[in-house]
Design brief:
Blueprint: H1 3-14, E1 22-26, H2 30-47, E2 56-59, H3 66-71, E3 72-76, H4 84-87, H5 89-92, H6 114-118, H7 125-133, E4 148-149, H8 154-164, E5 170-171, H9 173-179, E6 187-191, E7 198-199, E8 205-206, H10 208-233, H11 238-243, H12 261-267, E9 270-274, H13 277-286, E10 292-295, H14 296-299, E11 304-310, H15 324-331, E12 334-342, H16 344-350, H17 352-363, E13 367-369
Parallel strand pairs: 1-2, 1-3, 4-5, 6-12, 6-13, 9-10, 9-11, 11-12
Antiparallel strand pairs: 7-8
Helix pairs in contact: 1-2, 10-12, 10-13, 16-17
């Protein structure tokens, strides 16, 4: 919904009015700080403004030093993932202006201690205040919802908007124009009902069958996009482009020159995310080096042109996939396309949210059973 872009815009409006003060931006992770930094610098470059030394002290947590609070206007981003105790630190030193940005439908702070969970330490200050103030029905309500998203293809946005946001999340018209030339379907589900997950020595889950299918899919995808870009540069006819759809084979890795700069650029447009660290490690051992691979939790606040999801679990408890907030994060990271791999037969039997998602995909003809077969690219 453009949270980072909105924050960057607020920063630009505040800076000329602050005199000698600066803005302190805080986020709960290095990834979130890095993403916010990129957005702000991009805004500065667009406006050709020079605020060197003026902005912005980025930090992973609010300050615990009163001297910082005297010189900075506090600003918190991704506040839904900040521990409540950390978020209270600025108030200790008399901080009077705090802007919290977050999404109550996404992941809360990570608390591993069982005692901490029992005492509800995983609740953020943002969520506590949101639950109190969101029902205030007047023009001066301190809660504002960003209703227009600037990231996802509308085909990707449709189900999260319906299920998590009561159809209030809308796609900006420019997104359709920007993404219309992408040659593949923006959303597709590959059901691998024969897959079985296993656990490593740290009791984290992995699924070798999914990794194998994703490796083949990534090879096909990279080669296709490489050829597509080459044809586009050569201004070729539609018949040439159509011929690419039948060029996939299991031996395509032979034709990939992984040191080719264009191949590297294509890889850098792709992310593979999964709920489990063991699956992250296994995927990294099998996929090209320039594809970003990480957990769903670590990817909150980030985005990629193409996101591939490895669900892993296949029978028994569905573990991390039970959390609807994690599902929401998982489904809202991609810009151009999102492709899901998993045992959706089992997942739809075990969880209400997953069943609704799979039925929606089936009804939109975005679902395919692949079993042992290599996945084919989802051409439009």
């Amino acid at each position: 919904t453009g949270k980072s872009k909105t924050i960057a815009g607020i920063v630009l409006k505040l800076l000329p009015k602050l005199g000698n003060k600066k803005i302190l931006l805080c986020a709960p992770s290095n990834n979130a700080c890095d993403e916010l930094t990129r957005r702000i610098l991009h805004q500065f470059d667009e406006l050709e403004e020079d605020y060197k030394g003026k902005v912005v002290r980025l930090a992973c947590q609010p300050p615990d030093d009163h001297r910082l609070c005297e010189h900075f206007l506090d600003f918190m981003v991704m506040a839904t993932q900040s521990l409540e105790a950390d978020s209270l630190l600025p108030f200790r030193f008399g901080c009077a202006k705090v802007i919290m940005v977050g999404d109550p439908q996404q992941l809360p702070p990570c608390v591993l201690s069982q005692a901490g969970k029992e005492y509800n330490l995983s609740q953020s200050l943002y969520l506590r205040l949101y639950s109190i103030l969101n029902d205030v029905e007047n023009i001066n309500s301190p809660v504002s919802m960003l209703r227009v998203q600037y990231r996802m293809h509308p085909e990707i946005c449709q189900w999260p908007s319906e299920f998590f946001y009561n159809n209030r999340l809308l796609t900006h018209p420019t997104i359709v124009t920007r993404l219309e030339e992408f040659p593949l379907k923006p959303l597709y589900f590959y059901n691998i009902a024969i897959s079985q997950h296993e656990q490593d020595s740290a009791s984290s889950s992995m699924n070798r069958t999914e990794t194998s299918h994703i490796r083949k899919f990534c090879t096909h995808l990279i080669l296709y996009l490489y050829n597509y870009e080459q044809l586009d540069q050569d201004d070729s006819t539609n018949s040439d482009t159509d011929s690419l759809s039948s060029s996939s084979s299991d031996d395509e890795s032979v034709f990939l020159n992984l040191s080719d700069p264009i191949i590297i650029q294509i890889q850098q447009r792709i992310a593979v995310i999964t709920p489990y660290r063991a699956q992250v490690r296994h995927l990294r051992s099998q996929l090209p080096n320039h594809i970003e691979i990480g957990t769903v939790d670590a990817f909150q606040g980030k985005e990629k042109d193409i996101v591939i999801i490895s669900c892993v679990r296949s029978g028994g408890s569905i573990g991390f996939l039970e959390d609807s907030r994690r599902l929401n994060v998982m489904l809202t990271r991609s810009k151009y396309a999102m492709y899901l791999f998993g045992n959706f037969t089992k997942l739809s039997e075990q969880n209400r949210e997953w069943n609704a998602l799979i039925q929606n995909a089936r009804g939109r003809n975005l679902f395919e059973n692949i079993g042992f077969l290599a996945p084919k690219l989802p051409f439009k």
